C-alpha cells in the first residue's frame, strides 16, 4: 500500500477489509474517471462534479436548486432511468420534502423542473424508485417509510401515498434488482422488504432478511464492485452486507460516516461529518481513497453519490 493510501486508511480508522447511458455525462459503466453528485446544504443545491477536478462553480457539470422552505437541508440525491423522461433526479430534504425532477440539457436546473413532490412528514432522509411499477419509497428519520403509488406509471403527477411502514430511525432505502427487495437502514438494523401489487395497490411487507447494526444506520448503497453486496454506514463504522447470507463485514471503524460509495475499480469515497459549525452533520470535504480529496470552501456536503442511473 502506498504511503498516501496508508495514511488515508488510518484517517478513516481502519484499512479496507481483505475479506445505462441515458444522457450525456451519465455513466452506464464504471470508469476510473467518474462524476459524483452531492447535496450541498449551504447553497441548498444538488451539484455534479468530475471527481478529478476541483469542486468549483466553474467546474460544475450540473446543478439543481429547489429553493428553501420544505426543500431546505437537502439530505439525499440519486438518479434513476425512466421510459418516459429518461434520467430523473430523486431528492429528499430535512425541511420536509421529497420529490423528483426531470434532468434536462440545462446546466443549472431549478424548482420548475420538478415532476412530483410530497411531504411525508418527519425528517426525510432518502427517496428510492421501484422500477417497472413506478412506485417511490421515502425514509423519514422520525421512524417510518412512506410508499407512493401511481395510477399511471409514466405520469409521476399521479403518485399518492398508499402506505406507511414503521421503521425506527429510518435513514436509507435502496432497491435491490437482483432479489426484487427494498432494503432500508434504521436504528440498529438493515431490514429487507418484499414488494407486492401495482399502481395504488403497491405494498411493502417485512422480509425475514435483516441485519443488526451497532448504531443508527446512515447511508445505504449498492457496492458497484460486487452486486451481491450492500454498503451501509452507522454511527460507529462502515460495513458490507451479503444480501444472500446476511453476513456483515466491517470495512471501517470511523464514526460519523454519512455517505459512502465503493466503485468497481476498488476506489471508495465518503463524507464524514466534521462535528463543527452550524451543521455538525456535514463537511466541506469529500474524501477519495485513490484520488485527491475535494474541498469546497464554505460548503456543507451531506450525501455523495456515483452519478449513474444503475442500481448496482
TrEMBL record:
Signal sequence range: 1-24
SUPFAM superfamilies per the UniProt record, alphabetical: Calcium-dependent phosphotriesterase
Keywords annotated in UniProt: Signal
Domain of life, source organism: Bacteria
InterPro entries: DUF6528 (IPR045383), TAT_signal (IPR006311)
Protein name per its UniProtKB record: Uncharacterized protein
